[in-house]
Predict the structure.
Amino acid sequence: NRDPDEFVDVFSAIPADKIAGLRTADFTKMYTQLPHEDLIASIDEAIDDVAKILQKRFLLDSVHAARSQLVFENSPDAAWRLYHPGEFDHGNHVTLDFIAAAVRVIVGNCFICLGGGIFLQLIGIPMGNEASPPISTLHLYVKEKHFVNRLVAELGEEAVKQQFFGFKFNLRYIDDCISPKFVNERGYPTLDDYGMEFSVVGDGDSVCYLGIQTTIDRVNNSIVFKAF
């Protein structure tokens, strides 16, 4: 979820009478745990996922064409505008391949000044870097996609929908996670899935997520939200 409002909109539809409780989890150390090669590979895969959608939308010959030929222009009056080659003549414009290359530069060139020396960061990315949150979010998206795909391949899509609500109530805001409490513990990605340490923070009918106390009202079969 992108913000607390989206969390409330999605989670208010959860079938309260069909869940055993709520569960929140948090990565104990996130930015400092990210392996660079794995991180770059995840971003490249996430960009490929976007390119596959754009390839179909614009009837292009290949994913490579979507990555290298479609041009995005950063505009002050719109978030991002998408162009075909030759349809723009001014402004800052980039391709998906350019974004992938920029991520490689950002991840591979993090330097720290310490004790009079300058050190290259070999694992993890700086918390204060503006690019760190979206890069980390896309990395975790790829890990979660692999986790879901493995379960679907093993159990079948219909079983995943029935047992885990199709994971539509498993939400994450950067490094904070919330989901229904599943009887089958396989409904949660593990340390092996993420490749990073994380721990369960809340477990029961009432948990806190993004500063919002989220409670199952068993009497009225609903979810109650209280912001602090």
